[in-house]
From TrEMBL:
Keyword Nucleus set for record: no
EC number(s) recorded for this UniProt protein: 2.1.1.297
Top EC class of this enzyme: transferase
Residues annotated to bind substrate: 194-197
Signal peptide: none
Name of the molecule in the record: Release factor glutamine methyltransferase
Family in the record: Belongs to the protein N5-glutamine methyltransferase family. PrmC subfamily.
Domain Release factor glutamine methyltransferase N-terminal, chain residue ranges per copy: 11-81
InterPro entries referenced in this protein's UniProt entry, alphabetically: DNA_methylase_N6_adenine_CS (IPR002052), HemK-like (IPR004556), N5-glutamine_MTase (IPR050320), PrmC_N (IPR040758), RF_methyltr_PrmC (IPR019874), SAM-dependent_MTases_sf (IPR029063), Small_mtfrase_dom (IPR007848)
Ranges where the Methyltransferase small domain occurs: 103-224
GO biological process assignments: methylation
């Protein structure tokens, strides 16, 4: 089917799907529909009921512009400005990683561990959009978090999301390279991070949506992908309470290497968990040597 002169909302969505298909963009039908919902501020029911109506010219131009941007590789979430994560909505832009389902595995594990450990104070290193700190604080009502990032632009996004979810009293942000600027004397129950873990070689193989539009410094350490695990694991020992938990998201092939890093630094109870695809994705450990 070729739509040279679309008129209805449905025809414009099919046009959008064709354009995205031609450019090889994944999930073309889904993205074409989601962008139409975004343009019209429709929910699924409204779109179904109104889809045979004519799309007015102003909306046509907006939709065409968004489809063109999406066809060039700009992620859908950067076009709409939002991404859902663990049932919450987050603002995103080109300065932060888009929250992903893989990271939900990390959150779910920490929520489960909280049943035994009752986290009260935590640090999130490389917070980006703030999705880890915010989701943990949202679901663990007694938890306060320090959300750290080296990027001031990322921290602006995190602060917006913290305010959006009414968590200003329980999450504060800090600009720091890992824990260099962290000066709190009271030790914490939890240190969590989704650091730049993609190797310099592998990062070049990522889709244009990722390597072309998400912050490179949040994706790769420009080395073997393990440098931040080494730095954080060493530094965290000075800030964790006895029995405190360190938790990471990791790459699919990094389980063995990060396990070794943690054990060599003296951590115990190392636990490796897979994502929904069965790949290594989360690792946690505890610190008992204070």
């Amino acid at each position: 089917m070729s739509l040279c002169n679309p008129q209805s909302i449905f025809e414009w969505m099919k046009w959008g799907e064709e354009i995205l298909d031609e450019k090889g963009r994944p999930d073309s039908a889904i993205d074409a529909k989601l962008l139409m919902k975004y343009v019209l501020a429709f929910n699924e029911t409204q779109l179904l009921l109104e889809r045979q109506k004519r799309l007015d010219e102003g909306m046509q131009q907006i939709y065409k512009s968004l489809i063109e941007k999406r066809s060039s590789g700009i992620p859908l979430q950067q076009l709409t400005g939002t991404q859902e994560f663990m049932g919450l909505e987050f603002q995103v832009n080109e300065h932060v990683l888009i929250p992903r389902q893989d990271t939900e595995t990390l959150i779910e594990e920490l929520l489960e561990q909280n049943k035994n450990f009752s986290f009260k104070r935590g640090i999130d290193i490389g917070t980006g959009s703030g999705c880890i700190s915010i989701t943990l604080a949202y679901y663990i009502k007694e938890l306060t978090m320090c959300a750290i990032d080296i990027s001031e632009e990322a921290l602006k996004v995190a602060r917006h999301n913290i305010q959006k979810h009414d968590l200003e009293k329980r999450i504060y942000t800090l600009k720091s390279d890992v824990l260099e600027n962290y000066a709190e004397e009271e030790k914490v129950d939890l240190i969590v991070s989704n650091p730049p873990y993609i190797s310099k070689e592998e990062v070049e193989t990522l889709m244009i949506e990722v390597i072309g539009h998400e912050p490179r410094e949040a994706l790769t350490d420009e080395g073997d992908g393990l440098s931040f695990y080494k730095r954080i694991s060493k530094a965290a020992k000075s800030y964790l309470k006895k029995g405190g938990v360190i938790a990471y998201e990791i790459g699919y092939n990094q389980g063995k290497a990060v396990t070794t890093i943690l054990k060599e630094e003296g951590y115990s109870d190392v636990k490796l968990l897979p994502d929904l695809s069965g790949n290594d994705r989360v690792i946690t450990a505890r610190w008992f040597m204070n």
